[in-house]
UniProtKB/TrEMBL annotation:
InterPro entries: Cro/C1-type_HTH, Lambda_DNA-bd_dom_sf. It comes from Aquipseudomonas guryensis. GO terms for molecular function: DNA binding. Transmembrane segments: none annotated. This is Helix-turn-helix transcriptional regulator. Residues 50-104 form the HTH cro/C1-type domain. SMART domains: HTH_XRE. It comes from the Bacteria.
Length: 106
């Protein structure tokens, strides 16, 4: 299993693992397999605009990551399109960047 542990103040705070491994863990635990997070639809701001939104606010990657509670590396994965944030992170990004559709988890 390939897990990335994200720490804050020397304490483990998050464990990040590939989606397929997460689904396998859920299945092994007898839980319903989760659907992949979806990007907002319709008139909502697209996640692909994350860099432009961050820069328009005058925030560095480190500033936004700190405000959201994730590592700058993890934020970079969202900005590059390699990963999609889960609902809680998307809502936190929406709160910090003022994207109400993300805050509501639509």
């Amino acid at each position: 299993m390939s897990v990335q542990v994200i720490t804050r103040d020397g304490e483990a705070e998050y464990a990040v693992l590939p989606w397929a491994e997460y689904q396998a863990l859920l299945q092994a635990a007898g839980r319903t397999v989760a659907a992949a997070p979806q990007e907002p639809q319709g008139n909502a701001v697209a996640l692909s605009e994350l860099v432009a939104l961050r820069e328009a606010q005058g925030l560095s990657q480190a500033d936004l990551a700190r405000a959201v509670g994730i590592s700058p590396h993890y934020l970079n994965l969202f900005e590059s399109g390699e990963r999609q944030p889960d609902g809680a992170i998307l809502r936190a990004l929406g709160r910090v960047l003022g994207v109400s559709a993300w805050e509501q988890g639509s």
